[in-house]
Design brief:
InterPro entries: Gfo/Idh/MocA-like_OxRdtase_N, Gfo/Idh/MocA_oxidrdct_glycsds, GFO_IDH_MocA-like_dom, NAD(P)-bd_dom_sf. By secondary structure, this protein is of the alpha/beta class. It has twelve helices and 15 strands. The protein is globular.
Length: 401
């Protein structure tokens, strides 16, 4: 079943009633507030709580869970006025009837198991990216969500919700870039990517990103955002995946590569090559995202972007008021023309505003189980090519997403 068919057949109940099969909002609490439980209180989980605290008319964090006691302590210290129910086992949190929706921000290998428990408990779900650790889990989660049409599942590829990235998608769809053939993406850092470990036996729990048993490495943790946006903006997926990389700088016992380069081949309306790279050994480029077409180039950061028209476009007839809203775009290789007049907020802020609307109105979020599965398949295929040292191809059975 395609995702559009699913949306129609799900019935998508209107209003806050979709929240309330079991008495949600029945207590004397502010109307319309979605009560959140956060499973996983590492850096990402604590960061999400801070974003939710910025939306007090929409969300209230009522419960937190982590297997590491010091993370619970840190979360409480950062939220001294909050009254959290605290759990070491996520199943206890899911039994809490005051929890309407759950955020999962745990190591990647735990995403699927906990997501299944959340859905079976009847809660709405915000599942951090990448959606699942492997392809079979992605396909199974799609099947489960289809069977639970009243529950909202949103996946944490937050750039889908940024006004900047929406505008870029619109520019692509309207043909402002012409025939697009090249995409260049990087997310570089200069550092070993380690977190402090208070005790040696906690190494793998804390630095899970460095071990294959738990993590998809740089591809899952960083580059998946850009992969996901390309899938969304072009309504596509790659047909072929090639990759290379290695542990080239930090030979410290880690298993996931600290230097990767992945190339995707896309066929369809636009026949494109997508280049996705990340290193832990040089931060000069940082986050880099360029989409190149016959009429111009878009260059993106997370919160701002510029359009660079090709010289011949302006030589033909100029370009007035169509692409960025400027009265006239002047060819300027160094400066370009801003796509939006000001920087956008952090993508997570937009993502949770969308999550609230989806929960209250019973609508399918832009980043959902279908799109999340498609990106998870891309990430896992890229890693299979990376560590298996062989090309990978999209398979027909993946087309359910």
């Amino acid at each position: 079943m395609e995702r559009r068919t699913f949306v129609k057949s799900a019935g998508l109940l209107a209003g806050a009633s979709v929240l309330n099969p079991s008495g949600i909002f029945a207590e004397a609490k502010p109307a319309g507030i979605v009560r959140i439980g956060v499973i996983g209180c590492g850096d990402r989980g604590k960061g999400i709580i801070q974003v939710l605290n910025q939306l007090p008319d929409k969300f209230k964090v009522v419960a937190i869970c982590d297997v590491l006691e010091f993370r619970i302590t840190e979360t409480r210290q950062q939220n001294k006025d909050a009254k959290f129910a605290v759990y070491a086992d996520h199943r206890g949190l899911l039994d809490n009837k005051d929890v309407d929706a759950v955020v999962i921000s745990v190591p990647l290998n735990m995403h699927y198991t906990i997501a299944v428990d959340v859905l079976n408990a009847g809660k709405h779900l915000y599942l951090e990216k990448t959606m699942t650790y492997n392809i079979p889990q992605a396909l199974q989660l799609v099947k489960l969500v289809k069977s639970k049409p009243k529950q909202v599942v949103q996946v944490g590829h937050q750039y889908r919700y940024s006004p900047l990235y929406y505008r870029v998608k619109e520019m692509i769809n309207k043909g402002y870039l012409g025939d697009i053939t090249q995409i260049d993406c990087r997310w570089d850092r200069n550092g070993n990517w380690r977190r402090p470990v208070p005790s040696p036996e906690l190494e793998r729990q804390i630095n899970w990103r460095m071990y294959k048993q738990y993590s998809g490495g740089l591809m899952a943790e960083l580059l998946s955002h850009q992969v996901d946006f390309i899938n969304w903006a072009f309504e596509t997926h790659p047909q072929q995946m090639f990759a290379t990389g290695g542990i080239d700088t930090y030979k410290d016992g880690r298993e996931t590569y600290d230097n990767v380069q992945v190339m995707f081949r896309y066929e369809g309306l636009h026949s494109m090559v997508g280049n996705f790279g990340a290193t832990c050994a040089n931060a000069h480029d940082g986050y880099l995202f360029k989409i190149k077409g016959t009429l111009g180039t878009i260059s993106l950061l997370t919160d701002e972007g510029k359009f660079y028209p090709e010289k011949r476009l302006l030589a033909d007839k100029g370009l007035v008021d169509g692409v960025t809203g400027a009265t006239r775009i002047v060819w300027n290789k160094e400066g370009g023309s801003p796509i939006l007049p000001e920087k956008t907020k952090d993508g997570t802020w937009y993502a949770f505003n969308e999550f609230y609307k989806s929960v209250v109105n019973g609508t399918l979020p832009d980043s959902n189980v279908f799109t999340g599965a498609r990106t998870a398949i891309c990430v896992h295929s890229a890693n299979a090519a990376l560590y298996g040292k062989m090309p990978m191809a999209w398979k027909p059975e993946y087309n359910v997403v």
